[in-house]
Amino acid sequence: MRVYDLIRRKRDGEAHSAEEIRFLIGEFVAGRMESYQMSAWMMAVFLRGMTDEETGWLTEAMVASGDTVDLSSIPGVKVDKHSTGGVGDTTTLVLAPLAAAAGARVAKMSGRGLGHTGGTLDKLESVPGLRVNLSAEGFLEQVRSIGVAVISQTGSLVPADGKMYALRDVTATVDSIPLIASSIMSKKLACGADAILLDVKFGHGAFMKNLEDGRRLARSMVTIGKRLGRKVRAALSDMEQPLGTHIGNALEFREAIEILQGQRADSALAQVACELAAHLLEMAGLQPDLSAARSEAGRLIRTGAAAEKMRELIGAQGGDARVVDDPGLLPTASHQEDFSAPESGYVASLQAETLGRAAMVLGAGRLRKDDPIDHAVGLVLHKRLGDQVEAGEPLLTFHANDPSLLEISRDLVTEAISIAAAPPGLRPLIEEVVS
After folding, report:
1. Structure-derived torsion over alpha carbons of residues 326, 332, 337, 342, reported in degrees to the nearest 10
2. Which CATH class is domain 78-155+168-324?
């Protein structure tokens, strides 16, 4: 078997066998396959696609390229949730303690933000003292003892994905459904959860710009999970505008706390997070149906049980749990400035990606993985799509530590927001669920 022949076959639109895919991934991880050969093969996949069987075999080979997490010592159904990325998407910080308070075992490995999208680990690290680098045994013990842990992924999990993504990022092969699906699912499967909920974003601020591409990705990932014996469900949710009203790490953590404290039950972020939590509770067998699961999620917020679980999570990972009751302990920007509506009317656009970039230039995000971030800075929106506004009324507030960066951020906000004479049509927060 030769790498050259497999590249040629995929270039010509032929399907691979499981053995051929295992050979390709094995050769690449072992360093016996040149990076330009893997780049050529991925471009062939980008152009020719893969069957469901091929995508499943690719995912299995990627999982087998490194270590896996064994959660069998933890009693109960272990659950995980993954978002394909967005702006103001703080669902994990609401969902994880909420699901754990309901009895689920949430064993979650998360990532950092890159570009206009935020990262759960960066938001958690807004809390003074909180650690996300736990040992394997520490991770397992924390899930056993309090039902939830959110930590950084170790480098030994799915090394094939890291090497492949580095090439995809520079060879214009990122936007391939089979490569995206296998990348996401290999990491989720390696983390060992029994039930996996996928939040597939689509719209301006998402990787998938339209519903049909989002649906294709969701179906591919659900198919992979089921082929490999896991419970997998995917929600297709809107990312045309930011999900939450806060964009930036400490700001988003503050919004999550407010939701867990029951202060923002009607917000879009609260609705999506609670709906996703309900799906996880049903998937884990903790509630008989979605209606009962939704009721339980609401009860856990009203009684304070979800907020208490957040305190436990923060304390277990070395953070200052007082932030749940006193968000003023979170990092705060030194300069705040409003951005006002130029005219009266209705908010017709709130371009999520552009607003994410506006927060990023203030220091809330990073262009490269090793860039530092400022946990305190970002944007707070006062209006959402369809809201009526008066000329001069604040649309959002900048939170900055370096006022010299505001000019660029202000220009991006001006590009992102438009006012019209009539309100726009609005999409559902969750368009559909693939299961």
Report:
1. -60
2. alpha beta
Spot the catalytic one: 80, 89, 161, 194.
161
Give me the catalytic one of 152, 183, 220, 237. 183
The architecture of the domain spanning 3-63 is Up-down Bundle (1.20)
Q: Tell me the DSSP string of 283-328.
A: HTTSSSSHHHHHHHHHHHHHTTHHHHHHHHHHHHTT--GGGGT-GG
Band of the pLDDT at 1, cuts 50, 70, 90?
confident
Residue 161 annotated among the catalytic residues of the structure? yes
**Residue 148 has which token pair?**
């939830």
Task: Indicate the CATH number of 332-420 among 3.40.718.10, 3.10.20.30, 3.90.1170.30, 3.40.30.10.
Answer: 3.90.1170.30
| Residue found by looking up tokens 């109960």 in the block | 76
Q: From the candidates 10, 78, 81, 82, which is the catalytic residue?
A: 82
- pTM score of the predicted model: 0.92
Per residue in 36-55, pLDDT (tens digit) is 999 999 999 999 999 999 99
How far apart CA 106 and CA 271 sit, in angstroms, is 20
Q: Are 94 and 81 in contact (CB under 8 A)?
A: no
Q: What are the pLDDT digits (tens) for 206-227?
A: 889 999 999 999 999 999 999 9
Burial class from Cβ neighbours inside 10 Å (0-12, 13-18, 19+) for residue 326 reads exposed
Cα separation, 34 vs 45, whole angstroms: 17
**In the chain, how many H helices and how many E strands?**
16, 13
279 annotated active-site: no
Q: Is-catalytic flag, 168?
A: yes
Phi/psi region, residue 427 (left: phi>0; alpha: psi -120 to 50; beta: rest), is beta
**Which tens digit of pLDDT belongs to each residue from 159-208?**
999 899 889 978 989 889 999 999 999 999 999 999 999 999 999 988 89
Task: State the span(s) of the chain assigned CATH 3.90.1170.30.
Answer: 332-420
- Alpha carbon 110 to its chain centroid, in Å, reads 8
Give me the catalytic one of 10, 108, 187, 357: 187
Q: Which of 81, 108, 112, 168 is catalytic?
A: 168
